[in-house]
Amino acid sequence: MIEADIAPDLITLNIVINCHCQRGRVDYAFKVFEGMEAHGHVPDVITFSTLIKGLCREGRMEDAVKLFNQMVSRKQVPNLFTYNTLLDGLCKLGKARQAFGLLAVMLIKGHEPDAITFTTLMDRLCKEGKLQEANKLLHHMLNKGYDPDVVTYNALINGFCKEGKLDKAMNFFYEMSSRSIHPDVVTYSAVIDGLCKDDKLQEARKLFYEMTDKNICPNVVTCNALIYGFCKEGKLDEARKLLHEMTGNSICPDVVTYSVIIDGFCKKGNLEEAIELFYEMPNKNICPDVLLYNTLIDGFCKKSKLGNAMKLFREMPSKNIRPDVVTYSVLIDGFCKESKLEEAMKLFYEMSSKNICPNVVVYNALIDGFSKGGKFDEARKFFHEMADNNICPDIVTYSVLIEGFCKEDKLEEAMKLFHEMSSKNLCPDVVTYSALIDGFCKAGNLEEARKLFHEMPSKNICPNVVTYSALIDGLCKAGKLNEAMKLFREMPSKNICPNIVTYSVLVNGFCKGGKFEEAKKLFHEMPNKDICANVVTYSALIDGLRKASGGRV
Asked: Within 10 A of 293 (CB to CB), how many other CB atoms are there?
């Protein structure tokens, strides 16, 4: 046009601006915008709205708001499309407050919101977990005579599912039919995800097949949700089967698909299958991410295969994947649990050299490792270092230190930390109480152990098998066998199953107390509870039998 000496008109220039914006070339669009007045054209509402949309798409909200203000100052009146575009941009960036401020301006200027306005705001409220406000906005929308559409319901269903309010989400899902609104793949994906997270796999599977009956094709999000449900219930064969079916149905698995299945196999301890899937990914042009590496490294650490874990860790930079604080925390914890404190410390120092700040999980792993290794000075040093680095100790930090002090018979220091927890508004849990009860029992202070045990219900903390076993052991060692048996028989009424430790301490207690027949009864009771005797149980029985037979065994 320019070569033919034909001056473009405003409509043409607006089309050119739109084309640039659609292709993500907003800066080129602005060059056209800046040259408009040179051609004798005044930008109109379409020009400004198109550029605002382009800026919003790129997340350049500050520029979008500036342009909106420029538009108003040039006496161009924004229309509903302009307002909705700017609202959508603000909402997508999580700026709900500014979005509602813009809505107020819109109303003052006499622009009535439409279904798109309400849906955009509802979606933002749902994403922020403000479900009550979203619900109120829905009723306001209905009162204004606007009909919600599938996008409105998707926003609400997704929001309520993400917050674990499945019943309300399902109400919205069924309400759609009564309004003759057809659910789409987004609706089904959100509901299936919610059902799987709520352990309702059968209902999720039913909806998955219902989709195909209605000619709604599942996508990778739908399949990932159901695969998560299968993995959560340990149905890994079905998860793999669905992965295979995805390829057959032209649904491309993504890194999330593989991460979920690999995590499932790692949790089952089946690392061979996990690694096989991991090395299958490049053939599907899927690049693993840091989360996936962390999952596998954690799986190997939990199986004490630290060599394999470190091999994956050292491989990460060659794949342009930067280890993060989770990677280091998993490895440091793995080395600490294997008492390889030197290797753990090498990784800890490496974090600093890579400008990765340790978090409370890293410090907890180190405190636990050094405490269990009897190196309390170092453990205490890490505890104080946390405060220097503005890292707040959590309940795990305190419980680990308390357990360490109890095992070293440093009960005064353990109780000092226990009381310090309350001053930090940290509530001790069953692990904290169990460690203290065990410590006092081993020190022969049954009175304090009993006091702590009876204090637990008032703090809404239920004793577990570890708590009971610790107190039963203390009572047995003090020769209070009747009280120990009373506690033992009380356990089933509290839905606590005795374990091998519980039985072993009782068998040992009765044998040492010269009550071999009672010990024998307990021993014969064990197989009925699917509990196999161990070397401690057998040693106690042999010792008891020797005493009962006058040393003839």
From this structure: 24
Distance of alpha carbon 264 from alpha carbon 50, whole angstroms: 47
Residue 186's pLDDT band (boundaries 50, 70, 90)? very high
Number of alpha helices (DSSP H) and beta strands (DSSP E) in the chain: 31, 0
CB 29 within 8 A of CB 17: yes
Which residues touch 195 (CB under 8 Å, ≥6 apart)? 166, 201, 203, 204, 207, 229
The residue type of 263 is: D
State the average pLDDT for the chain.
90
Average pLDDT over residues 246-251: 88
Within 13 Å, how many C-alpha atoms sit on residue 92's CB side?
14
**Are 214 and 184 spatial neighbours (Cβ–Cβ below 8 Å)?**
no
In 3-state terms, the chain is what percent helix, strand and coil (to 5)?
75, 0, 25
Residue with tokens 């997704």: 158
**Which two tokens mark 551?**
């040393």
pTM above 0.90, yes or no: no
Number of CB atoms found within 10 A of residue 499's CB: 14
In this structure, are residues 204 and 195 in contact, taking their beta carbons and an 8 Å threshold?
yes
Is the confidence at residue 3, as pLDDT, over 80?
no
**φ/ψ of residue 428, rounded to 5:** -60, 150
Rounded CA gap, 205 and 429, in Å? Answer: 38
For 69-105, the pLDDT digits (tens) are 888 888 888 888 988 888 888 888 888 888 888 888 8
CA dihedral 479, 480, 485, 490 (to 10 degrees): -140
Q: Of 440, 433, 501, nearest to 467 (Cα)?
A: 433
- The residues near 245 (Cβ < 8 Å, ≥ 6 apart) are none
- Maximum alpha-carbon separation in the chain: 121
Residue 514 zone, left/alpha/beta (φ > 0; ψ -120 to 50; rest): left
Quickly tell me which residue has 């503005």 as its tokens: 390
In this structure, are residues 140 and 156 in contact, taking their beta carbons and an 8 Å threshold?
A: no
C-alpha 239/C-alpha 263 separation (Å) is 12
Q: Is the pLDDT of residue 318 over 80?
A: yes
CA distances from 198 to 222, 529, 532 (A): 16, 31, 35
Instruction: Give the chain's length.
Output: 553
Closest by Cα among 118, 194, 196, 201 to 160: 194
Which tops the pLDDT comparison, 140 or 334?
A: 334
- Give the single-character DSSP code of 76: P
272: part of which helix (H) or strand (E)? helix 271-280
Over 60: is that where the pLDDT of 2 sits?
A: no
Nearest CA to 35 out of 3, 64, 75, 2 is that of: 2
Q: Provide the sign of the torsion angle of the four alpha carbons 90, 91, 97, 103, taken in this order.
A: positive
Contact 205, 226 (CB under 8 A): yes
Per-residue HEC secondary structure of 433-500 comes to: HHHHHHHHHHCCCHHHHHHHHHHCHHHCCCCCHHHHHHHHHHHHHCCCHHHHHHHHHHHHHHCCCCCH
**Closest by Cα among 547, 552, 519, 516 to 533:** 519
